[in-house]
Write a structure and sequence with these properties.
Largest sheet of chain B: none
Structural class of chain C: mainly alpha
Chains: A alpha/beta, B mainly alpha, C mainly alpha
Shape of chain C: globular
Largest interface: B-C, 30 and 26 residues
Structural class of chain B: mainly alpha
Number of helices of chain B: 8
Distance between the termini of chain B: 52 Å
Radius of gyration of chain B: 22 Å
Largest sheet of chain C: none
Oligomer: heterotrimer
Helix content of chain C: over 70%
Shape of chain B: globular
Distance between the termini of chain C: 22 Å
Strand content of chain B: under 5%
Order of helices and strands of chain C: HHHHHHHH
Number of strands of chain B: 0
């Protein structure tokens, strides 16, 4: 049964069209990759699916709720890793997560296990601003799963994650419905059963275990 | 000739009639002489400006409550037209002040709050221009529109203890000669009609400016629906 | 409700902790207001006779521009770090987040006032009395509410450096008028201190209520 149903998602930036009539249905527990060139509309689509942005037109239903109206309720169940990590550089990794525990309304016990899961247990007390780019990305991923979301929306999370990135993503994506945007076709094939390809804001098609030869 | 051209023509004709009444019918003021004739349009355009900003306030509140695009366009139209009338009020007021008070400007409650009014709605239009078009621009501008309308009486009230040079409301409590009163009421009616037709025309322009986005979006979805459905 | 208060306090503590560790804003603000007093000295030819009449104006000018910087930074920093969206993506109420940001920015500006008021008393020979402090603090509350609302707005708009003062200054005028009146009276001018203070309280209530109603529309996408 579909956990996410999108109908004709269209987004305009002024008079530029960024996303054109995207239809989607994603099953519970399914992992879907979104591929496309820069500017193809991946980020716009993911932001809409994560309820961070509203489409200009079109409908979106997530977990049986109208995603354009019930954003607050849905956000308890959605985790979003945006393009930028969005961390507080002066706060430690642990403090960053603790702060978001308060905002999410979840117990602080989650912090230690989340840090361990994303491999930051050793640097928990280091300021986020002094972490490497990859570690910051790990911390952002950790923040997105603090509240144990059922749906995870990942915008190019593999950027600078390092050699064990795929394993980390696998662990994080386990047991969740995931939409993952990436440039890395091999990663998409490894992590996701289905792939959606965007070009100029339009869906070019989807495939299962896609092998793209360009 | 469409109805907007008719409205524009009617408003211009009314304003010419008002000008006739001001210069030919109304008597010359005993104290101030001919310069007093500024009064008619000065006060009328101030009232028209307040009316326009009330339209902005109303449109903004309705937009924030139910997201009505029509209310937002009305607010946009009201802000621009209101800003024009505020400018007219300020300029005519200064022209009148120079011969009578001996200075173009005085920092009294009414002048100050009118100037603040002008600045606030100029800010409103700036927000409209700089924010991301669509929902964000409409929401942000609506907030500015509401705060602007509320701030003006507050500014006025807070500066009332300053020396007041501007005369009070002469129309209600002063014995304005009947010819002057008639001229004023006629001018005010004409000015309000002008403001209304300007708002209507501007509303039409805003509608046309908004137009392409939904229209093209419909066309675009029609094209893609001919293609095989991409996803189950 | 208790949850919202906890969130607001967490947001404020987060901002103040970050400021304490980096000491980015407060030292610069303090230096800025002292400099403003020095510049005023050259602009006005201050002596012991005219100081009491000029000092209130200088105080409010310095405070207004320090406030623009303090409130502007409150949301500009979140924008630069792209962290505002992460906060807004949680189920936490946008109004609680806004209140927390405003609280932290207000405390920072009060920290700046703790330098400005003694410096003014020192350089201008004016009294540093409880009525002056009360008027400045009361004005700070309403100015912070408005300043943070429009700071949150312009953080999401282009050309924000320009737009923040354009939107905020006209709305601050009532506070500057009433606060200015109160400080003038406290420094020896004629007039009613109580009336000015009562007005400040009224304006505070009006604009704090209005901004908390409007915050939702500014912060929620």
């Amino acid at each position: 049964m579909s956990i996410l149903v999108a109908n004709g998602l269209t987004h305009w930036f002024g008079h530029e069209i960024a996303l054109e009539s995207i239809d989607l249905a994603i099953d519970a527990g399914e992992h879907m990759a979104v591929l496309g060139e820069n500017g193809a509309g991946k980020t716009t689509l993911l932001r809409i699916l994560a309820t961070a942005a509203r489409p200009t037109s079109g409908g979106l239903e997530i977990m049986g709720l109208d995603a354009l109206r019930e954003r607050k309720r849905l956000r308890r169940r959605i985790g979003f890793v945006a393009h930028a990590p969005g961390l507080y550089p002066a706060l430690s990794a642990k403090e960053n997560l603790e702060f978001f525990c308060t905002l999410q309304g979840v117990a602080r016990e989650r912090v230690a296990e989340t840090l361990a899961l994303v491999g930051l247990g050793q640097v928990a007390s280091r300021p986020a601003g002094q972490l490497s780019r990859g570690m910051q990305q790990r911390l952002a991923i950790g923040r997105a799963i603090l509240h144990d979301p059922k749906l995870l929306v990942l915008d190019e999370p593999d950027a600078s994650l390092g050699s064990d990135g795929p394993e980390l993503l696998e662990a994080v994506m386990h047991d969740r419905t995931v939409v993952l945007a990436t440039h890395d076709h091999a990663l998409a094939n490894r992590l996701c059963r289905r792939t959606l390809v965007l070009r100029h804001g339009r869906s070019v098609g989807t495939a299962t275990r896609l092998h793209i030869v360009q | 000739m469409n109805k907007y051209e008719k409205a524009a023509l009617g408003a211009v004709a009314l304003m010419l009639l008002a000008a006739g009444a001001i210069f030919l019918y109304a008597p010359t003021d005993a104290l101030q002489g001919s310069v007093q004739r500024i009064f008619y349009l000065h006060v009328s355009s101030a009232i028209a400006a307040y009316g326009c900003f009330a339209v902005v306030l109303l449109g903004s509140i309705i937009y924030l409550r139910n997201g009505s695009l029509a209310a937002d366009r009305l607010a946009r139209a009201g802000a621009l037209v209101g800003l024009v009338f505020t400018t007219v009020t300020l300029v005519m007021g200064m022209l009148w002040a120079k011969p009578i008070w001996g200075t173009f400007w005085a920092w009294d409650a009414r002048l100050t709050s009118t100037l603040v009014l002008w600045i606030l709605y100029a800010g409103y239009l700036l927000v409209r221009r700089l924010a991301e078009p669509g929902r964000q621009a409409a929401r942000f501008a609506a907030v500015v529109g509401i705060f602007g309308f509320i701030d003006v009486p507050v500014v006025h009230f807070s500066v009332t203890w300053w020396r007041t040079q501007h005369p009070g409301p002469v129309i209600v409590n002063d014995a304005l000669p009947p010819e002057m009163l008639a001229t004023f009421l006629f001018t005010m009616a004409c000015t309000l009609a002008l403001a209304a037709s300007l708002i209507a025309i501007r509303y039409r322009i805003e509608t046309l400016a908004d137009g392409p986005v939904p229209a093209v979006a419909e066309k675009a979805s029609a094209i893609t629906s001919n293609e095989p459905e991409p996803v189950r | 409700m208790t949850n919202s208060i906890a969130i607001a306090l967490a947001v404020a503590r987060k901002d103040l902790t970050a400021e304490w560790r980096t000491r980015e804003l407060l030292p610069a603000l303090a230096q800025f207001v002292v400099l403003a007093l020095v510049i005023a000295n050259f602009g006005f030819q201050i002596d012991s006779h005219n100081a009491p009449s000029i000092a209130p104006g200088v105080l409010w000018m310095a405070l207004v521009f320090a406030g623009l910087v303090a409130f502007g930074r409150a949301f500009a920093a979140e924008r630069e770090q792209a962290s505002l969206e992460a906060m807004l993506m949680t189920p936490a109420s946008p109004v609680a987040i806004f209140a927390g940001k405003a609280l932290a920015a207000t405390l920072l500006l009060i920290g700046c006032e703790a330098v400005l008021l003694p410096a003014l008393a020192l350089f201008f020979g004016t009294p540093l009395s409880a009525p002056i402090v009360a008027a400045v603090l009361l004005a700070t509350i309403g100015m912070a509410a408005l300043g943070c609302l429009f700071s949150a707005m312009v953080a999401r708009i282009r050309a924000r450096e320009l737009l923040l003062p354009l939107l905020t200054l006209p709305l601050w005028i009532p506070f500057i008028v009433a606060g200015g009146q109160a400080v003038q009276v406290a420094m020896g001018a004629g007039g009613s201190y109580d009336q000015a203070l009562a007005l400040l309280v009224d304006f505070d209530i009006l604009f704090v209520v209005l901004t908390s109603l409007a915050a939702r529309f500014v912060l929620d996408e």
